[in-house]
Design a protein that fits this description.
mainly alpha, 6 helices, single chain, about 65% helix, Globin-like
Length: about 130
């Protein structure tokens, strides 16, 4: 693990040291909080889709919270794509909150005030970015 100065990156690094795959925890929380989301995934192969979707989202989050080299633009593209599939924008944005909450629970005492503030800021910025004209 690196000594990341970026609290968002640090939260993922700490989580990775505790959990090999966040996918089951993230989607269990998502479906618990938003049962309507479960029907949006087909029954066969959904685990692969969920894992891929989470990996792309984490990549976009890390880029958005860091260098903004381009991967973060996926967020705006996927808002439009998901709306075309009938996913409400609020549910799309809630996915980021679900990831944050999953990390917070996994980190426990290591979820610091700096990490919490960074995530609060990030979520507000993602929400604003997702509605900004491209």
């Amino acid at each position: 693990m690196s000594d990341s100065a970026n609290p968002i990156e640090l939260s993922f690094e700490l989580a990775a040291s505790r959990c090999a795959d966040l996918t089951p925890s993230v989607y269990q929380r998502l479906f618990s909080m938003h049962p309507e989301a479960q029907a949006m995934f087909r029954s066969q192969g959904s685990g692969l889709v969920q894992g891929s979707m989470l990996a792309l989202t984490v990549e976009a989050i890390l880029d958005f919270a860091g260098p903004r080299s381009g991967h973060f633009r996926l967020i705006a593209c996927e808002v439009a794509s998901h709306e075309a599939y009938g996913t409400p924008r609020e549910l799309f944005i809630a996915f980021f909150m679900v990831i944050r909450d999953t990390l917070r629970d996994l980190l426990g005492d290591e979820w610091s005030p700096d990490i919490a503030r960074a995530w609060d800021t990030l979520l507000a910025e993602i929400d604003a970015f997702a509605v900004a004209p491209t």
